[in-house]
Design goal:
The complex is a heterodimer of chains A (about 110) and B (about 110). Chain A is mostly beta strands and about 110 residues long. Chain A contains no helices and eleven strands. Helices cover about 0% and strands about 55% of the residues of chain B. Classes of the chains: A mainly beta (about 110), B mainly beta (about 110).
Amino acid sequence: DVKVTQSSRYLVKRTGEKVFLECVQDMDHENMFWYRQDPGLGLRLIYFSYDVKMKEKGDIPEGYSVSREKKERFSLILESASTNQTSMYLCATISGTRGYTFGSGTRLTVV
Amino acid sequence: QQQVKQSPQSLIVQKGGISIINCAYENTAFDYFPWYQQFPGKGPALLIAIRPDVSEKKEGRFTISFNKSAKQFSLHIMDSQPGDSATYFCAGISGGSYIPTFGRGTSLIVHP
């Protein structure tokens, strides 16, 4: 089974800082995704990538960018963190037929 | 635009009871309907999924019921246990796609 690892479980950053959230998968999958999870709003897709150096905007890309230099690694970048980006961030890849395997998440607090 | 409406937002059930979570969808192009289970501090994990050519799928205590004409599907957890306490997400995926449209989630608490 594929394993998705997010490097940080908890992060606290200051407003205006540049923030990097890292995600690594171990099965050489092409597709990788970044979601944010907020109470009452569910899972919202920020960006996804279907290959190295390829990226597509999801439903809420504003304020975020991504980087995929290697197939196993997909980074989410907050160029200038704001308090409304305080959230749980989840990375995922495709596993099996059409299911996702998620990482354990990074809970980001912007103060 | 919420294409998958999930209810209730929260649910409290006694141990041994039946938990029922409902979802309704609008997109008739959906052809795969997964459910995810998320424990606190963990990412969601695929629990069970159904295709619209069947009306029911059962795996252990978990059953999906699917009503294509009504564009509704539901998750039933029989003999609910405290270990089932989690957040549950339904989703729909269009044919040829791999990106789910998620419902907003249901927080289930099963009291011992």
